[in-house]
Amino acid sequence: MILEVKEVFKSFPVKKNFFGKVEKVIRALNGVSLSISEKETIGVIGESGCGKSTLGKVILDLEKPDRGKVFYRGKDISNLRKKEYRIYRKNVQAVFQNPQNSLNPRMRIWEIVTEGLKINYKLPQKELKEKAKELLSTVGLPSSYLDRYPHQLSGGQKQRVAIARAIALEPELVVADEPTSALDVSVQAQIVNLLMDVQESLGISYLFISHSLPVVEAISDRVIVMYRGYIVEEGTSKEIFSDTRHPYTKILISSVPIPDPERKRKVIKLKDFDSEEVSKGCPFYSRCPERKKECLFYNMKPFKISKTHRVSCTLHS
Ligand SMILES: Nc1ncnc2c1ncn2[C@@H]1O[C@H](COP(=O)(O)OP(=O)(O)O)[C@@H](O)[C@H]1O
Ligand SMILES: [Mg+2]
Question: Is-contact 88 72, C-beta < 8 A?
């Protein structure tokens, strides 16, 4: 086990009144637990605002949980010694949605991809440049890009640089938060393929957050489905996409267009959710086509469908 998230809660204060008092909070994570093992890809799906990025940030220690803990190799990350923390940071890396914002515009490409190597191993510049050349070749960029600046690269190329930076320290886990969403459709598949190639050669695990259900289905070993800060269903890719249990997951999957006209799906429409709506019981109640009275009293404790498949829905109690 590389990393474990245990019962994590995270709220954000919003809307301060005249006296600066917090009037409302958005509950981005509501008791989320998950574990990530070696060399596995976990897909994270759920509509915008359900807490996917917050989960990624908590894993990366970019947000601190209000309650609950993140364990790296069995140790609470909020309580690591300096050296252990450095090892954790080296081994848990990120690729974000928008390479535009995540690459320092004043640094050359070789400096960007070797920053971590410089800090961790204090290598001389010549070696760093040599290493940068190797990294660029791994991500499919020519060495003529070494001395360029981010603005001289296309979106897809910038994301390749972000991937090179993330793998420079040979991490165990990469949190990829919608790594292709900001890119042209034509290059999205190339970036997914690159991530898969890199995984194969370096043996890394991914927490892969994505809007693209076909991509998640294709690349994930396990998938978690989030709704309003809860994991409402989790299972192997096959379980989630071929033995779908939660009404919300069914709706998510039904909304993906299928190119094959023979396999028409009934598309169930879902209106946007109100992130401030307060409800007792199941958070999906107000939008659920299969709701029952008892859902209002449900504590969201998941039911086990199989060893790997869990669902938080009273239909499966
Ligand atoms: N720093 C923040 N301050 C206030 N609200 C936030 C912050 N980060 C996230 N949120 C809110 O928390 C919820 C979950 O956000 P996020 O994790 O970004 O969702 P997703 O990545 O699934 O779209 C949203 O309602 C979002 O507006
Ligand atoms: Mg997000």
Answer: yes
Cα separation, 228 vs 14, in Å, equals 16
Nearest listed ligand to the Cα of residue 49:
1
Residues near 7 by beta carbon (within 8 Å), at least 6 away in sequence: 31, 32, 33, 67, 68, 69
pTM over the 0.90 mark: yes
Distances in Å between the alpha carbon of 233 and those of 95, 122, 174, 222, 316?
A: 25, 44, 22, 11, 11
Domains of the chain: 36-65+75-217 (3.40.50.300), 221-317 (no CATH)
Report d(CA 240, CA 311) in Å as an integer. Answer: 10
- If you take atom 1 of ligand 1, which residue's CA is the nearest one? 12
Closest by Cα among 297, 310, 143, 296 to 243: 310
Q: How far apart are CA 275 and CA 125, in angstroms?
A: 49
Tens digit of pLDDT for each residue in 257-304?
Answer: 655 555 555 556 665 656 555 568 999 999 999 999 999 999 999 999
Question: For 48-60, how does the pLDDT look when each residue is reduced to its tens digit (9 = 90+)?
Answer: 999 999 999 999 9
DSSP state of 283: T
Ion ligand 2: residue ranges with CB closer than 5 A:
52-53
- Kindly list the protein residues whose Cβ atom lies closer than 6 A to any atom of ligand 1: 12, 14, 26, 28, 46, 48-54, 275
d(CA 303, CA 141) in angstroms, rounded, equals 47
Distance 52 CA to ligand 2 centre (A): 5
Q: Pick the ligand that lies closest to the CA of residue 277.
A: 1
Residue found under tokens 């999906």 = 284
Which residues, listed in sequence order, are joined to residue 174 by a DSSP beta bridge? 93, 206
CA of 54 to the centre of ligand 1 (A): 6
How many angstroms is it from 182 CA to the middle of ligand 1? Answer: 18
Beta bridge partners of 173: 92, 205
